[in-house]
Specification:
GO biological process, one term: amino acid metabolic process
Helix content: 25-40%
CATH superfamily of the largest domain: Type I PLP-dependent aspartate aminotransferase-like (Major domain)
Family: Belongs to the class-I pyridoxal-phosphate-dependent aminotransferase family.
Shape: globular
Keywords: Pyridoxal phosphate
Strand content: 15-25%
Largest sheet: 7 strands, mixed
Structural class: alpha/beta
Strand order of the largest sheet: 1-7-6-5-4-2-3
GO molecular function, one term: pyridoxal phosphate binding
Radius of gyration: 20 Å
CATH architecture of the largest domain: 3-Layer(aba) Sandwich
Protein name: 1-aminocyclopropane-1-carboxylate synthase 1
Length: 335
């Protein structure tokens, strides 16, 4: 894995096996980061749109809380995002909340976008200034495709941030096999860090009961050692995703379903179905109207993740996965 990440993530400091700790999935490692870096009562800072399972993974058993940065109409993937994180951090401090880490999802789930290098450098400076750890969930790192006739974004790992901006001991990256390699059944994730004390804590205590299967490790090792297979698999994957993105956007446009135009990462697209919410129910409780629409869609055989799950600031957004065959996509959008 170290050789693989050195090739694809291009870290400024080369990785070796001692920098990487495996567990039975990234879910366990999310919690491990929280337990190793924070004390009960502390908080973690996130952007308002974020991966829907973070609250369960990092908060359920740790005694932590989340502080969310709101971005309004600003581009949260540009350097402008830094001032919004700073504002949320300052407000939390005024409220007596002790923030210990900034958590990013990069590439982003559910918006499918990549942080610019300027944004990552700015966030690294922000973390260094305020004595924060920078945790980056990069599980979609190699699921970044090229869309024709669009301004495509590139993935940059926080491990590739220029030296001297942030203490490497503050930087921790989460990665796994479930997304880029379509191998969720292996239940195999890893955390990458140059911080020896953090690595020792995760290996020696926190993840003691989350050890990965030896069978999974063996399969993963054989996959990563077969470089021609890995190169071909990843290339086939991003080419297929690019084709499906073009198809799904065409189908959504034909059906006049509003969706996020930006983004070229991940397996999903962000929909705006707010016009289909029950107007009377929405006046009383917009989130209940969103849940009712989700239930109605599910009854018709279409299961979408609701915006509320991803801390959407307003009801009516849904995440739709488009990595299906063409027939399934056409039927789902028609319904």
């Amino acid at each position: 894995m170290a050789s693989h990440m050195n090739e694809y993530f291009r870290p400024v400091r080369q990785l070796d096996a001692e920098n990487i700790t495996f567990a039975a999935g990234v879910t366990a490692l999310n919690e491990a980061c929280a337990l190793a870096l924070c004390d009960p009562g502390d908080a973690i800072l996130l952007g308002q749109y974020n991966y829907g399972a973070f609250p369960t993974d990092l908060v359920a058993r740790t005694g932590l809380s989340f502080v969310y940065a709101a971005f309004g109409d600003s581009d949260q993937f540009s350097e402008n995002c830094v001032k919004h994180f700073e504002a949320a951090y300052d407000q939390a401090r005024q409220n007596g909340v002790n923030i210990r880490a900034l958590l990013l999802c990069s590439p982003h789930n559910p918006l499918g976008r990549c942080y610019s290098q300027a944004a990552l450098r700015g966030l690294a400076k922000f973390c260094e200034k305020n004595d924060l750890h920078l945790i980056s969930d990069e599980i979609y790192a190699l699921t970044v495709y090229q869309r024709p006739r669009h301004a495509n974004e590139s993935f940059t790992s926080v491990l590739a941030i220029d030296e001297g901006i942030i203490d490497p001991d503050r930087v921790h990256v989460l990665y796994g096999f479930s997304k880029d390699y379509a191998a969720g059944g292996l239940r195999l994730g890893c955390v990458i860090s140059h911080n020896r004390a953090f690595t020792q804590a995760v290996r020696g205590g926190v993840c003691r009961f989350s050890s990965p299967s030896h069978f999974s490790m063996d399969i993963a090792t054989k996959m990563l050692e077969d470089r021609p297979f890995i190169i071909r698999f990843l290339q086939d994957s991003i080419e297929a995703l690019a084709r499906q993105r073009v198809l799904v956007e065409a189908l959504l446009d034909q059906s006049r379903i509003s969706h996020l135009k930006e983004g070229n990462a991940g397996l999903f697209i962000w929909l705006d179905l707010s016009e289909f919410l029950d107007p009377y129910q929405q006046l009383d409780d917009g989130w209940a109207a969103e849940a009712a629409l989700a239930a109605k869609l599910a009854a018709g055989g279409v299961v979408l993740s609701t915006g509320k799950r991803y801390q959407s600031p307003k009801p009516g957004n849904f995440r739709m996965i488009f990595s299906y065959d063409e027939g399934t996509l056409r039927e789902g959008i028609k319904r």
